Structures are given as structure tokens and as C-alpha cells.
Request: fold
Amino acid sequence: MSPEPSDFDYQGHLVFNGLYKTERTDGSDLPRARSDAAGDLSERLPDFDDNPTIGGRSGYVNLPLREAIYDDDSIEDSLQGVTESLIARRYKYEKFKEQEAYYDGDRIQVDVPSVKDADIYWRYDDYMYFRGAKGDVKEAKSQTQRALSGSTQLRQIQLEEEFFLWLFKQYIENNQPSSNLEIRRLTDTTLTGTRDVFGQETDVNASSDLEYCVPLLAGILRDKSISMVEGNFRIHGNSVRAEVGRKRVYVKASKGDIRTSNKVRRIALCLAFIDELVEMHESWRDLDPQDRYPPFEFFRELYEACESQEVTIDRISDNVLTKYANLRNEDPSDWGV
Reply:
């Protein structure tokens, strides 16, 4: 692992429990330039040490990530692009927990403080990513939205089941959906829907390849929804293992090029990966329905793939065929419904 080039640090996993589109509200007085915005944001966000409250301290500290990336010789030029318009902060807040203690020989209840935190990476002024535990991210998002009230609205990015299906289609057809982000192999997934022989919720773990995974193929044909995919990706030529859910991204630190990188480079790889993912999602939403949603032939090929593995499925769900025919602005009767 390459040495740490700066004081930048983080604790915990590379779990981003909140991805948000930041939208200026009418009459927003936020500056247009990142450099001006960083100073403006410092005035809006109270410092942690200077913001005591009745329930404990809360506030923000600056994260010197941009400087750390610039100073890190292990980070190639293609990754240094994540510093453009980047504003990084850490939200910290104190919580108190009652514990028993002895005082002058008596057992009493005392409040013991602990500090929780979540990291905020604002790709000014388009996207904001929160890294941290789910509860800490919820607190950080709430406080940050309050601080930005009147200038910026945070709209959560939620990846739709149809987007996951589109990703899977690109994967099995060997179409790379982005020039900078490649899907190398998908191995894990979660499906939800009506109960079948695999259960109401189907978890596929450590398959050799989802392209040939019967529980996934059969689940899609039986009107189950993909809510998570995990696999190996390449971002700007670097290998990354990531679990992508509807509202979160978990980059695995023990796999790929992340494993041998220092913490600064790890965060740079994460931000580059999430940037490409959310941009890909935005581009997908702008596609024509004929390109956004799979045609009848796609479902027929999944059916035939199940048959080739000697798995019998009575028929493709009418709900599936009707739904995607309508999404493509086609007549369901042409799909045999």
C-alpha cells in the first residue's frame, strides 16, 4: 500500500448511504464558482468546536481532500479530475449514553459522550454524496439541508428497477454503458417480488456470472425486481468491486485496486465511480423509451437461456410483458399478451 501523503483520513467502510442531486432553488444566492462556494459554505455550516448545543456539540470540519489528491503522486491524471468543483466536509455530532459509574462509593448514572460523524462530498453544484453509517448520514443530511435552506434542495437519487435491468442487459450483450466505467463481471444480486420456488426475496451471492444465473433469469421473467447488483468494474482503468443498491453504493476496500491504495486514492476511486454511475443514470433517464427499456426479444432470450439449463418456466409473466410493452409505447398484444 502506498504511503499516506497528507493528514486526510477517514474511519469505517466505503459505504455511501446517501446520493443526492443538488438543485438550486428560486432566488438562490449561492456563488457559481467552486472556490467562492467553499468560502460561502463555511459561513453557512457551523464549525463543530464552536457550536455547542443542549444535547451536545454538532457542526462541520473541513476535509483537505482536494489538496491531498493534488499532493498524491500515486493518483493519475484521470482520477485527479474528481477534484474539479469538489467541496469536502465532515459533519460531527455528540451523542450521550447513560452508563453506571461509582462516585464517592455510590453507584450513579452518568451521561457519557461519544462523537458520530459522516463525510460529505459535494460535486459543486450538481451532486452531493454522504459516506457513513445510515443513521449518521440521515443526521448529516438533515442538518446540511437545513443549513442550505433557501438556496439548495437535496433530491435523493434512487436507482429504479428498470435501470438495473438496463444495466444487466448491457452487461450480457457486452455493451459498455460508459467510456470511463466498464462492467467486468456481475456476480451478486437481490430480487424482490411475489413468492416463487426461490422465495419472496431472492439473494444471489458469489455466483460465477449473473448472465447464467437461473434464479435471476427466472426471477425477471416472473416479475421480480432487481434491487441490487454487485460485481467487478473498471473505472479509468482501475479495478473496483462495488455493491450498487437503489439508494447506496458500497465499494469493497479488500478487492481490486482499492485494496492496494492509500486512503486518499481510495476516496478518489470511489468518487470517480459514483460520478460515472449517477451520470450514467441521468443519461439513461434521457434515453428514448425504445432504448431505455428492453424489447420482447430480450425476455424471450432469457426464457431460452433458462430452457438451455433445463429449467422449466411455464411462461413469461403477463405483468412483465404488459409493463415493458407499455413503457416502450408498444401494443402489448404484439407481445402476445
